[in-house]
Amino acid sequence: MKQDLRFGAILALSMAPLLSACGNTINCELAGDNIRGHILYRDGVAKTNSRRVIVQVSTDSFASVSSRATSLVNTQGLIVIPYEYCAANDVNLSFRAFEDTNSNGQWDSGEPTGRYDRTDNGNATYVTHNLPTADSNAVPPVDWEIQTDVNITLDGTTAQ
Amino acid sequence: MRIQTKRFAVLISLTLASSSALLPTQPALAKDNEGHSLVHAGIAFGAWASSFSQEGGGQEMSLRTDVAPVIHLSFGMDIGPVFVEYAPVIGFAYLDLRDMTGREEADDVSTWSLVSFNAGVRIPLIHLMPYVGFGNQHYDFRYGTDVDFTGRFIRAGLGIDLLSKEFAHIDLRAEYQRVFIDEGGAGEMPDGYSTRANVWMLLLGVRWGG
Question: What residues of A are in contact with residue B187 (Cβ under 8 Å)?
Answer without folding.
Answer: 36-38, 82, 148-149
